[in-house]
What does this fold into?
Amino acid sequence: MQSKFSKKTIDQVFEWDVQTWSKVVPFWEEHCDIKPGLKVLTVGERGGGLSLFFALKGCHVTCTDFREFPSSIYELHRKYDVQNKIEYVEGVDVSKLDCFADETFDLVVFKSVLGALSEQNKQKNAFDEMHRVLKKHGFVLFAENLKASKLHQAFRQKYVKWNDYWRYFDLKNDDYFYAKFTKKQFKTQGFIAVFGRTEQQRGLLAKIDRIILRAIPKSWRYVLFGVLSK
It folds into this structure.
């Protein structure tokens, strides 16, 4: 069953380039039964959006980030009265989930996080760690930035301040990340929406993407959606 959250809520969950990234929701829900009571680990949750989403779905959420949480994350969760369903853990390195025991969670979830690890081997370690803390038949649900086209790469080099250290996923060369998982579902999304300078512009360009995306090679698209089953 697909979520019926308001546009305002979806905006607060995804924060940026919402029309493109929020398309991961029906994809996740198509391949994973997200139901109340599941134990969910969210990683890289400085904004708290995914923790909000899964708490509203009735899950018990462990919300983590490497850095200290800003006060805005607590304010957001109190606004929706889900703070009692969320545990906050700071200082968590997704490539070394040592603070969590094996087979603890039903779901591990992240969005636009692993690029910050900078190195391919650390990204692989992150997936291995997520696999370890998952219960049998659990799922990793994710949406991550792709290397995309030469045009995207040139744009990032000029305008994205963290481009020098961010490692974008490579569709062809990163398949081995998921070797430990028994089932894998993927979808690619987005081509021109990312070039918008405002959220309104990105929303308008995302509508064009809906029309042209079938003609765009997967290797040129800039977002990867994934559902991995243990």
